[in-house]
Design a protein that fits this description.
Blueprint: H1 2-30, H2 35-106, H3 108-153
């Protein structure tokens, strides 16, 4: 339903823009003016249209760069979090491996306990990574939706 409303709004705006251009052109050509006045009016309107197009292009370019920078920052944050948490997991594995060697010599039961603890820690770290990545992706999506809503309201 949202896509349909979005499409209707977009179609309406495009139709309004085209209708405005056609109406302005008709008014210029049908107005009782001399050829020189008509040419001056056409040149002025063309200059206004060029200025607005340049302004729109500049705004779109700036917003695109802003979104790209925002996405790059978020992906850097995600990479850093994943890297940090992965390093922690590696350290825990090394520590557990060291502990396993000495514990395995003592008893088989204590080895099973360490493996269980390690599995739990790895699972918790994986859940933390997944949650962090999910939050960062949600932040990016919210920013894009906010920008899109702002752009539509203009």
């Amino acid at each position: 339903m949202s896509d349909k409303n979005s499409m209707n709004t977009k179609d309406f705006l495009i139709g309004s823009l085209i209708g405005g251009i056609v109406g302005a052109s008709a008014a210029l050509f049908l107005a009782p003016k001399s050829g020189k006045e008509l040419r001056n009016d056409i040149n002025e309107q063309a200059q206004i249209a060029r200025d607005k197009t340049t302004q729109f292009t500049s705004t779109a370019y700036d917003k695109g760069n802003e979104w790209a920078t925002y996405a790059k920052e978020k992906s850097s944050n995600i990479a850093k979090v994943v890297s940090d948490q992965s390093a922690q997991v590696v350290d825990k594995v090394k520590e557990a491996t060291s502990n396993l060697k000495t514990e395995a010599q003592e008893t088989a039961n204590s080895t099973e306990e360490l493996v269980g603890d390690l599995a739990g820690e790895v699972q918790e770290s994986g859940e933390e990574i997944a949650e962090t990545v999910k939050q960062e992706v949600n932040d990016i999506q919210a920013k894009i939706e906010e920008e899109a809503a702002t752009a539509q309201s203009k």
